[in-house]
Amino acid sequence: MTATADIARMIDHTLLKPEATRADVEALIAEAVELGVYSVCVSPSMLPVQIPNGSDLKVAVVCGFPSGKHSPTVKAVEAAGAVRDGADEIDMVIDIGAAKEGRYDAIHADIRGVRAAAPLPTILKVIIESAALTDEEIVAVCVAAADAGADFVKTSTGFHPAGGASEHAVRLMAETVGPAVQVKASGGVRTLEQAEAMIAAGATRLGVSGSRALLAGAGDGSGSASY
Known about the structure:
By secondary structure, this protein is an alpha/beta fold. The protein contains nine helices and eight strands.
């Protein structure tokens, strides 16, 4: 069983609702510092944000979100702008339709473009929307992401009707990318039990919107979505 404090340090404390305000993001950051999570994950229009002095809280920003249907050029520009405005990490969405069509070269090029626009030490996470893909598609997309320079593959946006993270998808993703690339489980992770299951399956980062309830052991899976 993973200690709660250790789970907290794996959490990207997330607010991606379209109606989010700057005051909401300020409250998110304050709560993130209080809870001891790894980062906050916000929309690019919320940048720049103010992290309290002395805090090591990181800032993750989504790119091509939530559909992934933005052109590669737009994604690269969005990622570069986010880094310029203070993002430590970029969570980009692939074109899911390209995966369904088997156009993995296009996905590779898309990721490479964002990687070039947001070079290391910026962390690049690639959202593959695993619930919308077959196992074969998950493997192929993860291989493309790893080869294109991703630091993480991530299960879900939390906005797709097909669903969010599953233990099966996390395990398959972890087995595919090996130790060189990590896995972020995101979408529907609302309880400590779910978090521990994702970690056991191979996740090293968790996308969670209801972090306080999860860490308190109060989450019951019936609250707001976790992205």
